[in-house]
Design brief:
Strand order of the largest sheet: 1-2
Shape: globular
Distance between the termini: 56 Å
Strand content: under 5%
Structural class: mainly alpha
Order of helices and strands: EEHHHHHHH
Length: 174
């Protein structure tokens, strides 16, 4: 960022190049979209939340210790905004998971992805951060501001719920 004197003589902050914005979007865009999609189960809402996250990043211009701190900050903002959006959608009864199959790598994973989307938010975000994004339990605890034991318990319960849904599905041949 550059400090520039405005017409009225007041210091103003201006982004030095568009390269920083491009770097942020290229580096974190897909990851944040996946997280938001899992929480919201709606493509358009996920896109909106990711965009809002980047706007917040640009307007607040936080200073980070390293790339991991930056990534954790973005995940936290995106997660919180997703939860707020989900709350808003629940009040207005708007949930759409019809486009979910588009984001599945192959058709075999669609069932798992579908079950993951139906988990309670507290379980699915922990499962996504752990298994998809590769975070460790203590890192997830810091990002979500919960204890490591809470992360472990949510992972355990999330896996149990998924396992039970798969058992029922296979038992009845669906």
């Amino acid at each position: 960022m550059l400090e520039v004197k405005g017409v009225d003589g007041v210091q103003q902050s201006v982004w030095s190049t568009d390269l920083d914005i491009e770097r942020i979007v290229d580096t974190y865009g897909n990851m944040l979209f996946r997280i938001c999609l899992v929480i919201l189960c709606n493509e358009k809402d996920a896109e909106d939340v990711v965009q809002d996250t980047f706007i917040t990043y640009l307007t607040k211009a936080p200073i980070f210790n390293d790339a991991e701190h930056e990534k954790a900050w973005l995940i936290t903002v995106a997660t919180n905004r997703s939860k707020n959006k989900r709350r808003y959608n629940i009040i207005r009864k708007h949930m759409d998971i019809s486009d979910l199959q588009l984001y599945s790598i192959n058709d075999e994973n669609y069932g798992l992805l579908d079950h993951l989307m139906r988990l309670p938010t507290k379980h699915k975000i922990v499962l996504l951060l752990y298994y998809v994004e590769g975070y460790k339990v203590d890192e997830i605890a810091k990002i979500l501001t919960i204890t490591t034991s809470a992360v472990k318990k949510r992972l355990q319960r999330g896996r149990e719920i998924l396992r039970e849904k798969y058992r029922r599905e296979n038992e009845y041949g669906f």
